[in-house]
Amino acid sequence: MFVASLLVISEALDATGVTTWAGRALTDRAGTGVRSLLVAVMVLAGVLTAVVSPNGSVAALRPMVVVVAVRGGHPPSHMVMPLAFAAHAGSVLALSGRTE
């Protein structure tokens, strides 16, 4: 149920256009280079995971990462895995951080 609800929230963010807006803001700041996009995505995931669980942050950021990767001409699979690793690394930023 938990994973299914995360996917529903992720799809809702994509359907409302939040992911398009966030992806555009990220590419405006980081550019379209693969290295700069990876660093920006990983920092964003780490900071978000300090507040939210790693699973929640990955579910929220996954559609945005796919949009950013496609617009930059990069394979989405090369950016989703670093997103997951950054989310787990970011979970130790908060004192209540946990790895799931």
Features:
100 residues, mainly alpha, 5 helices, 77% helix, 0% strand, globular
Poorly predicted sequence stretches spanning 5 or more consecutive residues: none
Number of helices: 5
Q: How far is the first residue's CA from the last residue's CA?
A: 16 Å
Kindly estimate the percentage of residues that lie in beta strands according to DSSP: under 5%
List the domain count as a whole number.
1
Rg measurement, Å: 13 Å
**Helix content range:** over 70%
What is the overall shape? globular
What is the element string, with H for helices and E for strands? HHHHH
Structural class: mainly alpha
Mean pLDDT: 82
Task: Give a quick rundown of the structure.
This protein is mostly helical and 100 residues long. Helices cover 77% and strands 0% of the residues. The chain has one domain.
Notes on the protein architecture:
The two termini are 16 Å apart. The protein contains five helices and no strands. The longest helix has 19 residues, at 54-72. The protein is mainly α. The chain has one domain. Helix 1 packs parallel to helix 4, helix 2 crosses helix 4 (54-72) and helix 4 runs antiparallel to helix 5 (77-90). The chain is globular, with a radius of gyration of 13 Å. The mean pLDDT is 82.
